[in-house]
Amino acid sequence: MFRRIVAAVGVVVLLTGCTGSNTSTPLEKSALITPGKQNTLKLRNPLIIGLERFSKDSLLRHASFSYRFIDASNDSLIAGFNEDQALIPASTMKLFTTAVALEILEPGTRFKTSLQYEGTITGHTLHGNVIIKGGGDPTFCLGEQTMKIIFSNWCISLKKLGIDSVDGSVIGDGRIFDQDYIPYTWTWGEINMGYCAAASGLSINGNLYELFFEPLKEKRFDSGLKKVTPFIPEEVFYNKLVETEMDEEEIFLIGHPMTNQKTIRGTVSKGKTEVSIVAAISNPALAAAGEFLNTLCRKGFYISGKAYSVTDSDSLAERLKRSVIIEITSVQSPTVASIVHTTNQASYNFFAENLLKHIGLKVLKYGGTEAGALAVRHFWESKGMDMGGFAMFDGSGVSRFNTFTARQVTWLLAYMRASPAAEYFFTSLSVAGVSGTLRTLCVNTAAEGNVQAKSGTMSRVKSFAGYAQTRSGKTLIFTIIVNNFDGPSFEIKEKMEKIMDAMVQL
Predict the structure, then answer these.
(1) How many Cβ atoms from other residues are within 10 Å of residue 66's Cβ?
(2) CA dist., res. 37 & res. 447, Å (int)
(3) Spatial separation of the C-alpha atoms in residues 119 and 115, rounded to whole Å
(4) What residue spans of 306-405 are helical by DSSP H?
(5) Which domains does the chain have, with CATH numbers?
(6) pTM metric for this prediction
(7) DSSP reduced 3-state for 420
(8) Taking Cα atoms as reference points, which of 271, 329, 306, 332 lies closest to residue 108?
(9) Could you read off the pLDDT of 134-157 as tens digits, one per residue?
(10) What does the alpha-carbon distance between residue 377 and residue 185 come to, in Å, rounded to a whole number?
């Protein structure tokens, strides 16, 4: 499952396309048309009728919700409710991250990861260290096959210099970004999970690893003794899984992300002899160095030292500061436009977090989550957006501290229609019933193929924001956000699908 996910993400990174788009100016505030008011629109407008039914639904009895629907051709308001209420958006927060990434980082920008060395070469021996210098490329070594190709090519590059031995170590350097990998508002129960892989200056395999182990036999084991991809140096696991008669399994990892000790908890089906878990890498720079060191050894190189991360050793950092660093070779990421495409199509949290740190680095000269969030806020303020109620604590929407209003995200969507990067932004959004996270949405309805949007989902949160083409040929801009609804997520999704179906029939 893990390899299929990584492979799918890799394909989306590489295969992107762009189409033309219309343009428009940012929307002005206008009067609300709310369901429940007596107006003639109710007699002929299926959207207004659908919104009134939606607002009275029992699932929303205890919920907070808002929506805004705009006719993009003349900026007129079709329907709106609680448009200025700050709500948790979940992954629709990626719209703010990706839009600013296209505007500030520019669509054609790429990020570089370098193979370097410091020291002297005598005969066939490097007396010094091999260094992997990260440039904030979230796609570096994404997938086992890509990892093998890059590291094998790097071994060839070292051999071309006449090197077959290293009297030193392999160093991972991810200092282009801050070392606080994880946004501080992410919850303790999530920070080790695969969907919470955090951004780092040097990444490997999307900062995820997959570990295979015997579920009941082994109570404590070292990652070096098990099948784990990529290699995780010095990680120790305490297995506290219990058997269950049920077919469904729930396996999760807990523990401080900056330590090398983790506990595996949950349930496993009775009789299972091997299970696997996909989890976030705690020290990506160290993992990259460890995986490359193992590759060097497999290729016949002799390495006297170990794998290190620069930030794990003050003395090592000081040595590199005084050393002459020589670049051997490098690899570059796909373009920012391609990374944005994958971020929105796959709702890929890891890419979004990396983009946010790059925004902070570009604008405020600091590659951190908080710097990126501040830069995003300043960008929209400079364009005239009312930022009241807006709060950004990560780039992906994982944080429950994030909030924005329906008016703000609809304003953003209108602004991006006039952006030089409009085509890249539009094509990054999923199409209902066709692609990305919306491929199962509105299937066999009028909205199938006519809604292009970003979805957001987490516990008790559901949101959609994007564009729709109506039967009459109009383009609508819309946002729907619901927090703290009753019932399962799929039920509120079905209610929102009916609104989208009504929307495109205008």
Answers:
(1) 21
(2) 26
(3) 14
(4) 314-322, 336-345, 349-364, 369-382
(5) 33-93+388-503 (3.40.710.10), 111-333 (no CATH)
(6) 0.89
(7) coil
(8) 332
(9) 999 999 999 999 999 999 999 999
(10) 18
